[in-house]
Amino acid sequence: MKILEYYRLAAQNKARRFYLTSGTRPYLQTDMGILPMNEKSLVPSEVYSLMDEFLEPNLKEQLLTGLDIHTYLQADENFSLRIAIFRQRGSLALSVKIIESKVKAIEQCSIPKRCYESLLKRPSGLVLIGGSRDSGKSTTARALVDLLVRRQSLHVICYEKITESDFSHYPSSLISRRVLGVDVPDLRDSARMITREDIDVFYLEDVEDAKSFQLALELASRGVLVLATAVSSSVHNLFERVFHTYSNDQYSREILARHLIGVTHQTRLYSSFHEQNFVIFECFTNYPSIKRHIRDGQIFPLINFMKQSGKPDCLTYHRGYEDLVANDVLRWDEVPDEYRG
User: Going along 101-200, which residue ranges are E strands?
Assistant: First the structure.
């Protein structure tokens, strides 16, 4: 079988990802769990043949040096494939995620309007968009970029791992997209170079270390609106990483307190009651009364503010799960234990 045949089989089963590994059967990941696609195990020659269909010569050379590869393939007019190639069982394996080819409008995402309007209310500053793997945080971030350029005439620069979803053509805005590790070999001089390009908005995919976070913070302090995604399990977890790993000195926290606009976090969950996926959000907005807690790196006062302030743009998962249960979207026994109190 060819890789697009595997894609069509996965699409028929409403899968969002499939796995092709030498020595095992092909598997697909659905809302109901991981299921085999057929009974026949793949042999190494079949996996290598699959990659010959789409892999460019320079990426093949990288594979030969032992590097893992991330690339994408257009499947049809509506979907593309994000492909990770890595070594396993003495051979190669593919993990393929099915994603929509076009950037979604923010109205198609589940984030409450009062939250995203609050995140975009200032012309400059830092917005952090957190979520677990495959939660859709990059989809939300690109939807926010789409909303901004539909409203205003802007120059946007995107630093992405893979330019997998296509933006529309905008009559009065420019979106420049650059691939990390290819167009941007090093982040070290990026802040100085970017600000020379008369930029309004900067999108950074996956803040993974102090270097990438400091780039986002530096640009936010120079008058750029920065949208940055980060893998995390909750807003609390994201603050822990920001305070204790990415900005653990007083100067960085001072800049963060001054220029952080807000944080949003999302989790994808499956409702067996409705047999479909839902995305739930929690949102934090940086108000003047709590900036001192950011300067001091205090997390619990920020979380308590989200829970108790009554601000419409500050939401917690506790309230979100309660709303889903009240609206008969979830059963109470499907709510994680930590959010039942």
Answer: 125-131, 155-160, 174-179
